[in-house]
Amino acid sequence: MKPKILITKKLPDYVEEYIGNYCDYEIIEDAGYNDIINKIHDKDGLLLAGTKIDKNLLEHAPKLKVVSNISVGYNNFNIEDMKAKNIIGTHTPGVLNDTVADLIFGLILSTARKLPEMDRYVKDGRWNKQDESIIFSKDVHHSTLGIIGMGRIGETVAKRAKYGFDMNVLYYNRNRKYDTEKNIGVKYADLNDLLKQSDFILIMTALTDETYHMIDEEQFNLMKSDAILINASRGATVNEKALIKALNEKKILGAGLDVFEKEPIEKDNPLLKMSNVVLLPHVGSATIKTRNDMARLAAENLVAALKGEVPPNVVPE
Ligand code: DGY
User: Fold this and answer.
1) How far is the CA of 54 from the centre of ligand 1 (A)?
2) 97-279 domain in CATH 3.10.20.30?
3) Each residue's pLDDT tens digit, 218-256
4) How far, in Å, CA of 115 to CA of 108, rounded?
5) What is the ipTM of this complex?
6) How far is residue 159's CA from residue 250's CA, in Å, rounded to a whole number?
7) What distances in angstroms separate CA 120 from CA 59, 134, 141, 169, 199, one per listed residue?
């Protein structure tokens, strides 16, 4: 008998076909936490993107062996609860590095050079007025980029920054990355120094108990008044209330955000009314090819675990 799995996303046909060779699968598109609970009792595997996996859900899943996330981030997993039940968690690193790094440069350029604002300026017919004050912006080339979290995506961004934009790149990470320092020419800085010196501060670290609100009022107070914060990791690495305060009080120049503490963003979030921010709907990896590659990798991880093999991308503990 084939193992039974639940899938909560529409997958490319070839990925569904691949899964179907090994598993009996049920797809409930956009299934949420409660939908999963209602369907999980007889399932051996779960393929999803970002839904919380906690003790309560696992209590409804007596047969579950593997949860495969279609994302590199896995802060939705309660690793302790999964370990206690011998459930394998997997994710999709690697295949999205360049796509996310491209988007991060989009955010850097959009915020620094005010691209959305300039677009509105032209489309609103205001260009004729030659209002000089609005058009000036901030250089990206030869400025300092501080990357917090020098993992695979951080390194991919650093290459673009060094080779494409002649930027000075600082990084802060749990462990020094001596090879990256040598190969790409980035420099290690402790967190406070990085915050004080950087023109662009990029958060790329995973969300964990240690990194929750690691950028808070105290950290904003250290930043340059023309610094721009870019977050493409997880919203809760930054205390959003402190960010809004820093933007309102002009402690920093602006922010480019692909992630938020609450997603989708709440309709009354003050960020929505601010002109010095560029906001995206968590689309870092959202190109057709990369999302297909992530789905394929997630399926391979899932199938390997159900065959009793060690999946290629078990989440680190
Ligand atoms: C990830 O894979 O974790 C990215 O945030 C895209 O969802």
Assistant:
1) 19
2) no
3) 999 999 999 999 999 999 999 999 999 999 999 999 999
4) 10
5) 0.92
6) 30
7) 51, 12, 24, 32, 25
CA 49 to ligand 1: nearest atom: 7
φ and ψ at 78, to 5 degrees? -90, 95
| pLDDT over 90 (residue 129) | no
Any atom of ligand 1 within 6 Å of the Cβ of 73: yes
**Distance from residue 233's CA to the centre of ligand 1 (Å):** 7
Give 76 Cα–ligand 1 centroid separation in angstroms. Answer: 11
Whole-angstrom distance, CA of residue 231 vs CA of residue 239: 12
Match 């870092």 to its residue by tokens: 284
Q: Do domains 4-95+288-306 and 97-279 have the same CATH topology?
A: yes
Predicted model pTM? 0.96
> What is the rounded distance in angstroms from the CA atom of residue 119 to the CA atom of residue 151?
33
Say which CATH architecture domain 4-95+288-306 belongs to.
3-Layer(aba) Sandwich (3.40)
Q: Mutate which of 285, 290, 292, 313 to test ligand 1's pocket (most atoms within 8 Å of Cβ)?
A: 285
CA angle 196, 197, 201 (to 5 degrees): 85
Measured CA to CA in angstroms, residue 225 lies from 140, 153, 199, 220 at distances of 16, 27, 9, 9
Spell out the domain ranges in the chain: 4-95+288-306, 97-279
Do residues 261 and 235 make contact, with C-beta atoms less than 8 angstroms apart? Answer: yes
pLDDT, position 276: 94
Tell whether the torsion through CA atoms of 53, 280, 235 and 160 is positive or negative. Answer: positive
Task: Give nearest CA residue, ligand 1 atom 4.
Answer: 71
CB-CB contact of 89 with 69 (8 Å): yes
